[in-house]
Specification:
The protein has one domain (13-192): Rhomboid-like fold. 66% of the residues lie in helices and 0% in strands. It is built from eight helices and no strands. It is globular, with a radius of gyration of 18 Å. It starts with 12 loop residues before the first helix and ends in an 8-residue tail after the last helix.
Length: 196
């Protein structure tokens, strides 16, 4: 009887690549005592003449304030991301992540000029809401989507109003909206879905 070999597979290149970038940025941030995280991987009000301002609109999702912040986000991204990447394809998932990063970065830049934002929690919420509409069919709204939206987004609205912490509830809400909209739009026309 022939023994089957177990092999590792690189099943979700975008998700794994993103997690690796976040890990490298975190390690560099720890080595530089947060200076690199502030310079490259956080978004905040800065001159529009500074080219790094535009890089930070996207790169802020790569930066994390510490191990706990990083591990909390990566647990969800590594859990939900591969399924989404398999269903929608690498390019489409990368576009959703980039759109989420850009919108949360620009909104933080405009609305919160004195607050520095970093972390992938907007993308986490995008993935959560996107996952909840994976079984969407034309003319139907899954009850799971409504419940997830009410629970996650409702919690963020409540915390944003009543809880004073260092968490950007607005980026969570924006990420959830981006993910829900992306999941809805990508499921409306399954014939146009990309294959990896």
């Amino acid at each position: 009887m022939k023994k089957s070999k177990i092999r590792l597979t690189f099943n979700a290149p975008v998700v794994l690549g993103f997690a690796a970038l976040c890990l490298v940025a975190l390690i560099i941030g720890l080595i530089t005592k947060g200076r690199s995280t502030h310079l490259l991987f956080s978004t905040y009000r800065a001159s529009l003449l500074d080219p790094l301002t535009y890089i930070r609109f996207f790169a802020h999702v790569i930066g994390h304030s510490g191990w706990e912040h990083f591990l909390g986000n990566m647990a969800y991204i590594l859990l939900l991301g591969p399924m989404l990447e398999e269903k929608y394809g690498s390019v489409r998932l990368l576009i959703v992540m980039a759109v989420c990063a850009l919108i949360t970065g620009v909104v933080n830049f405009i609305i919160f000029p004195n607050i520095s934002l970093c972390g992938a929690s907007g993308i986490v919420f995008a993935f959560i809401l996107m996952t909840s509409v994976t079984s969407f069919r034309e003319g139907e709204i899954p009850i799971t989507f409504i419940l997830v939206a009410l629970i996650y987004l409702g919690q963020q609205i409540y915390q944003g109003i009543f809880v004073k912490d260092n968490i950007s509830n607005l980026s969570h809400i924006i990420g959830g909206i981006v993910g829900g909209a992306a999941g809805y739009l990508l499921n409306r026309n399954p014939a146009k879905r990309e294959t990896r």
